[in-house]
Design a protein that fits this description.
globular, about 200 residues, four-stranded antiparallel beta sheet, 4 strands
Length: about 200
């Protein structure tokens, strides 16, 4: 199922094609594609090249591990994410390696790594649904996460499936039109709220 973005200005087709479905096909993600996803994340930029990201992952053909990662998601996400052939959790290392000081950019840099992963996924006909609804304490417990690492997001990854297989309330969200704020709402110049001429 495709839901290309209705953009105001031209953007690369990989960006316009990217969206976050909840329906996944019963098809595993090939090992070579998983390698490419993680390699794309590895080459994201980060403050001081710190690379403060960690990915916990489980494939659906590893049912015990997949279930363990699934149980780290909020209940509402588990309803549909259980069908995702690949689940991941992202974590951020909160202190710099080079001086031990807090890295206030760590969450930003994890987001950059995931952004790379998502674009790479789209280029390989995969879809990624990112989730804020995770259970940080369960992640820490189940995976023995060391002190100084913060769970950030969950990722459900696979091939796009049939939205008709979803429960009705989730299917409604799946089929709803995509929308975004207008640029004028968050791009300012000269003063807060000042609209750049080229957007007016």
């Amino acid at each position: 199922m495709d839901k290309p973005a209705d953009t105001e200005f031209p953007i690369h087709e990989l960006l316009s094609q990217r969206w976050s479905p909840r329906a996944f096909a019963e098809r595993p993600v090939e090992a070579k594609k998983i390698q490419s996803l993680l390699e794309a994340a590895r080459w994201a930029s980060s403050c001081f090249n710190e690379q403060p990201w960690v990915f916990l992952m489980a494939r659906i053909d590893e049912p015990t591990e997949h279930r363990k990662l699934l149980n780290c998601l909020a209940e509402g996400n588990q309803v549909w994410a259980k069908e995702a052939p690949l689940l991941m959790m992202t974590l951020a290392k909160l202190n710099f390696d080079h001086n031990g000081k807090p890295n206030r950019h760590a969450l930003h840099d994890v987001g950059l790594a995931v952004g790379n992963l998502v674009v790479q996924a789209t280029a390989m006909d995969l879809v990624v649904h990112q989730m804020a609804g995770i259970l940080p304490e369960a992640i820490r417990e189940f995976f023995s996460v060391p002190f100084g690492y913060e769970p950030v997001t969950g990722l459900a990854i696979g091939y796009s499936g049939d939205p008709q297989a979803l429960p009705s309330d989730i299917r409604e969200r799946e089929l709803a039109p995509r929308s975004r704020k207008r640029l004028e709402e968050f791009v300012f110049t000269k003063t807060w709220g000042g609209t750049p001429d080229f957007l007016g």
